[in-house]
Amino acid sequence: MTATALNRPPRLSPGARVAVVAPSGPVPEDRLAAGLDILRGWDLEPVVAPHVLDAHPELDYLAGTDEARARDLQEAWCDPGVSAVICARGGYGVQRMVDLIDWTAMRAAGPKVFVGYSDITALHEAFAVRAELATLHGPMVAAAAFHKDPRTQESLRATLFEPESVRTLGLDTARPLAPGRAHGVTLGGCVSLLAADLGTPHARPSARGGLLLLEDVGEEPYRLDRILTQLLRSGWLDGVAGIGLGSWVECGPYDEVRAVLADRLGGLGVPVVEELGFGHAETALTFPLGVPGVLDAESSTLTLDVPALR
Predict the structure, then answer these.
(1) With 90 as the cut, is the pLDDT of residue 154 above it?
(2) Which residue of 4, 18, 57, 284 is surrounded by the most CB atoms within 10 Å?
(3) Which of 56, 124, 137, 280 is catalytic?
(4) Which of 61, 62, 70, 278 is nearest to 171 (CA)?
């Protein structure tokens, strides 16, 4: 199986209703409110799902029960008046609820914009495999970068409303880790979540033919080595076309992290570009998943063949 372009949802228009859900960790109310204000400033109408501010009765790292989190996502997605679903935050919990969702109903509800990152990687994979839908690896409503960083905000706003204006992606910090130029379809996200998905019933069998986007947070260099080695040993990286790297916040000194990335990925014989500017950092650009493009190590950019949204 080769990574193929997925169905792109339509762009948003002023006045669109946008549902906010919490599939993973608990959401601080003040941070949620700040993010909702930004969305309203874009002339969007945010609708907060019923259980977004819930707390699990026993496990305080979850935003409510698995069933409630799954129900919120499915009901928001299947609401014909909702044009997009944006996650409130990551954390942990998607893997506990992703199989409680009726993916046949989700697919039938039609393509919509879906935004998130971090733990939401497991949902990006589910939308790709079970609904054949392109999604947006982008900032979440209660995320600090979304509140504080103008470039993070503008990257998402432009992608939602004017996607043709953001077809060349990457920060000025981007640079080649391995040379080359490759065409493929974007996929990826938080690398620990991609590794954790291996062996599950609906996991993508490989990244073959894809432009794999990887980032993570809070994983020490030896743990990143273990994660990447697992992906290599499983054959999941066989045939990957190119690799784009984002942020590695709280993963240790970057020179140590970089050494691991170079050691584990540099021998694949494909272009690898680092510090593209997506993930958990202070600036978190929006990168579409499931869209064809070109990763060019010389220019250290990812250029999309088509806009992220129709």
Answers:
(1) yes
(2) 284
(3) 280
(4) 278
Contact 283, 277 (CB under 8 A): yes
Q: Which residue has the tokens 């029960």?
A: 65
215 catalytically annotated: yes
Q: What number is the average pLDDT over the span 82-89?
A: 97
Question: Cα–Cα–Cα angle for 26, 32, 36, nearest 5°?
Answer: 150
Pairing of strands 168-169, 301-304: antiparallel
Q: Which of 125, 192, 206, 215 is catalytic?
A: 215
Amino acid at 241: A
Taking only the tens place, the pLDDT of each residue in 221-241 is 999 999 999 999 999 999 999
Q: Considering the entire predicted model, what is its pTM?
A: 0.97
To the query of whether residue 202 is one of the catalytic residues in this protein, the response is no
Structure confidence by residue, pLDDT tens digits, 125-144: 999 999 999 999 999 999 99
One-letter amino acid for residue 201 of the chain: P
